[in-house]
Amino acid sequence: MKMRIAVLLAVIAMFCAADAQTCALDGLMSSLTESVASAVLHKVTLSCIDASARGSLANCPAGYKPTGCSCGNACGSWDIRNDQTCHCQCANQDWTAARCCKIALK
How far apart are CA 58 and CA 79, in angstroms? Predict the structure, then answer.
């Protein structure tokens, strides 16, 4: 695989002119990047759910990660703990909600 990449780069270098403005390497790399990104995006899906609980902590189910939190009692201060739990920082919270998402292959 490494040899193929080296040969590809050598061929690209041969087609590149000495003047950087006439080199098509930037366009080629951009096209390759877009192609790879497009192929990957067609194979994945983003799945999101809501999780809520009484009190100041709301846990996301296994496999999901919190992407945002919401708190009761007009509290706007929150953080994400242990990459799994939404924590509302105000005292005496009546509820906490988490938006939990995961990326999966189709």
Answer: 11
The Cα–Cα gap between 50 and 98 comes to: 6
Q: What SS3 state is found at 71?
A: strand
Alpha-carbon distance of 93 to 54, in angstroms, equals 8
Kindly state the tokens that stand for 46.
């983003």
pTM across the whole model? 0.61
At 23 the pLDDT is: 61
Task: Mark 9-24 as b/e (b = at least 16 C-beta within 10 Å).
Answer: eeeeeeeeeeeeeeee
